[in-house]
Structures are given as C-alpha cells and as structure tokens.
Amino acid sequence: MSDIPQDISHDQYAVRLKKLQDLRAAGSDPFRANCTQSHFSGDAKALYVEGQDNLVTVSVAGRLVTFRVQGGSSFVKIQDQQGPIQLYFRRDVLGEERYGEFKKSLDLGDIIGATGTLFKTKTGEITVRVDAFTLVSKALRPLPEKWHGLTDAEQVYRQRYLDLIVNPESRARLMMRSRIVASIRHTLESRKFLEVETPVLEGVAGGAAARPFVTHHNALGTDFFLRIALELRLKRLLVGGYDRVFEIGRIFRNEGISRKHNPEFTMLEVYQAYSDFQGMMDLVKAIFSNLCRDVIGTFEIKHAASGQMINFAGDWRTVRYFDLIDEAVGSKLSALRGTEGYRPAVIEAATKLGCEARDDWQTFEIVNEIFGKKIEPALIQPTFVTHLPKELCPLAKLNQQDPGLIDVFELCIGGMEVAPAYSEQNDPFVQREMFEAQAGEEKQNIDHDFLLALEHAMPPAGGMGVGIDRLCILLTGAESIRDVILFPSMRHSENKG
Fold this sequence. Notes:
Elements: H1 11-25, H2 41-46, E1 57-70, E2 73-80, E3 83-90, H3 91-94, H4 96-105, E4 111-120, E5 126-137, H5 153-158, H6 160-166, H7 168-190, E6 194-195, E7 201-202, E8 214-217, E9 222-226, H8 231-239, E10 244-252, E11 264-273, H9 277-296, E12 300-302, E13 309-311, E14 317-320, H10 321-329, H11 342-352, H12 363-375, E15 383-386, E16 408-413, E17 416-423, H13 428-439, H14 448-454, E18 461-467, H15 468-476
C-alpha cells in the first residue's frame, strides 16, 4: 500500500481506506470486481406491473446516494445514468454474513451492482428487493453534503464529476445537450445531408476573423493552427460534388472567456448546394421545430434573463440590419451611406447611445458596435436580421441591388446571435478581393488553396453555422456557457490531490 497517501488529514478518508484494506485482507478487492447491469433505473421501474410484486427480476448498478440502515432490513438508493432507484436489503434474504458485510463495508458514494425482484412499497415507490449485491468500486472520498450540495462555481466546473453526482439540475441540463445534438443530426440526415469530419489542425487559420491557437508539428517541422472555423474545408466538399454536408465539430479561438464565450466550443456548420440564405431560414426553422417537439416538449420556453416567454411557433420576424439601426438611433442614418456625412453622423449617433466610436475603427465597426450593444440584446423573440454590411463577412455573396450589403441573416434569439447564414460566395475573383480587403486589416488569412478550389467551380449554395453551446444555453435556461459544457476551459489547478 505504498501508493496510498500517508498524510491523511480527513477522518472519513482514513475510515474508508481502512475498510478497503480490510476487504482486501479478506480476499475481496472491489476494484477487481464487476457486475451485470440488465437495465438502467428508469427502464427497470417501467417494467413493474401494478399489483404484481416480485415477478420481474432486474440487475441494476450505480452509485450509493442514500443509505438508511434499520436493523434487519435497510433501504438504500443508487443512481445511474437515468436517475435513482431504491434497493431493499433484508438479513433473512441475504443471510447473516452477507448482510453484515453490506452494513459494514458500504459507504455513500460506493458503486454497487444488485439483482432482485421489483415490488412497490407502502409509500408507492417501485423498489428492488435485493437477492445479491456486489461492491464494484470503493469511494475513498465522501460526496458533498446532501443539503448543501456542490455550490461553489469553481468546484462545480473543475470537479464536474461531483456536480453530475449531486446536482440533478446539472445532470439533466448536460444530458439534454446530448439530446439536442442528436435531434439536429436526425433532422439533417432526414434531409439527405451527409455528416463529415474535417481536420482540426490547419495550415491556414481561415473561415473567420479570430485569433488562433498555434502549435508545432515536429515531424513536418512546421507550425499548425487549431481551426477557428469549419467553413473552408466544407466548401471544398461542395466543389468535390457533395451537395449537402454538415459537421458538428470543436472550434478553438484564442480569445476571452465570458458568459457566452469559451476558447473551445462546438459549432454546427451545414452547406446545401443550389440553395441560398433564404433556404437556410427554412432549414433552421425545421431544426428548431423538431427540437421543440421532440426534446423540449414545448414551443414556448422562458428566457432566463428577462423572464419573457420565447415563442418558436408561427412566423419569425425578418428585418433588415439597417432598419434596426435606424430604429435604434431614431433617424434615417442608413440613407447617408456612401456620403461624406455618413461617418460623422454614425459617430454622433453612437456617442448619444453610449457606444464606443474609436478613431481607429472603420465606420462599419462603429455601426456594428451600436447593433451589438443596443439592438441584439433586445432581440428576445426569434428574429432573422438580414442584409448586413459586406465588411462583416467576406465569404457571403454581395447583394445584387446593393453591393454594399451581403445576402445573409443572423438569427438572434434570447438577446444573442444563435445562427448566422449566407448565400455563399462562389465567384473566385470577388472572393479573392474580399479576402485581400480583410487581410489588409489583419482580419483573416488568405487560404490560397480554397481560392484554387473555387476556380474549379463551386455550385451556388446556402450555408449556416449554429453555435451548439449558445443553443443549449437558450433551450436549457442556463446562465453561462460553462453550464452547458462538460469541462469548460479553466486555469490549471495547483491542487495535487
């Protein structure tokens, strides 16, 4: 036992360690044992037939979360992926020796397997009458106290495993995330989209204006970037003849952390040949409709921050970007676009609204500051904001009636952008010009191989991105992106255990 810490400051740790040593001395090592699990807890309870006790046999397994010993009989609860189930232990069923081992060796937090028959107690709880049990993993450290739970935010995120054990809200929220992703996959696959995987390591950090993480490949002797977007690889597949593709993948941006931002996050990107940004409107509405029906169970959810009810049924508002700007500033600011008086008017409007208007910012950046600070947070109901300034995205098609705008939408719900979508730029000459204009501002690197691919002809297409983490914030009522990511990014802990 030389690998066991000698400095044991926690009394419960010492007691549990002694129990483990006693078990091993008696020839029983829980870490070498296993058990049969025929059913999860919820599935097992669903097998019970009213009035027919002790007819159905099940084998369940999970972590001990309550422990109530009462002389010759005891009730405990174990918890598995589906939740808790009650177990009933009796001395006259297990025998004196085995029942004594049950009382002596088990602690809250231990993981056990149990086999027995289903019955209903006088209080109406479906329970397993245990015929046999096995200790399969000994918890040397106690769980957080029952009544206080795990409330410290730092500990919740750093020790997510404890959060999942003791906080049912966290467990339900993060399990719902898995169901949300599964529903999105089902919707896309039912529409003949093909799921693909593209590289995480990129030679050029393209597809977005963001700061990448840099790493080095020793064998090739070159630097690589963790991808900041999925877009440019997926569009190459359109060139290659895949007409409908999607990827749900991890994205990495070496930027700040906030309620809505984590350096590592999950994006859905989807591309459909022979479509456009309006076709993406239909697709995203279908995704939300299926989510509301199959996962959430309602087309109305409460927005956590404002208390408003968000309604996903019926028509969603569609409004042009500059119409919202004009509403916010109280004048026809957009009518001045392209004139000498436009920038002074934009600066004046931003100042009146309390928004930044830095001298080194271009005019479109000041306008977008107004949108981001004063307009987007108020868009609680589903809203398609269309026809943004061309400078905001070099990868979208220019609007034919107004080449200063692009054919795009940003879907805003709950005061944040959830899904941007474009009519994708497939003209290689225009695309190069747009890249070069942004590269001069150090906004986005030029991916020359992507431009080469466009010269082989990419079909007209609609494309869309959905931030999975933000979507989960919205649909689960979470307060922060950290609440919907199993293991959010954090500073290294100094705790060595």
